[in-house]
Amino acid sequence: MPTGGCFCGAVRYSFTGEPVGKAICHCLNCRKISGTAYSTNVLIPADAFTVTAGTPKTYTWVGGSGKPITSFLCGDCGSTMWIAAHSGMKVVKAGTLDDADALDLAKPQAEIFVTRRANWVQEIQGAAQKEEM
């Protein structure tokens, strides 16, 4: 069962089964949340995802779709671990996974918002390229 958590370890999570999607996102919000040029994400059905320790803080904003998106982060160290949108999925930030084997499962199937990709970031070979979500 894959596990993950924040930098300081105060908030922990696990999930069962395989991710239903794996994508890199180049949108501005994902760049800001991840603190880098893009965010590597794994999509997990909400009913397969469990918070196993701590209580994350939340921050909600309106996404490009006009619908609310909630970010779940550690109130102590500030790490964003996942976001939840209207899709019923948890969008787990792959860098918060504990195990290198679980991180290998996060190899992207798609890149989204590619028109916003930094010019020095190369296209992921074999990943679908999508201009929007």
From TrEMBL:
The keyword Ligase does not apply. The keyword Zinc applies. Belongs to the Gfa family. Coiled coil: none annotated. It comes from the Eukaryota. Residues 2-121 form the CENP-V/GFA domain. It comes from Schizophyllum amplum. This is Mss4-like protein. GO terms for molecular function: carbon-sulfur lyase activity; metal ion binding. Gene3D superfamilies: glutathione-dependent formaldehyde- activating enzyme (gfa) (3.90.1590.10). Keywords: Lyase, Metal-binding, Zinc.
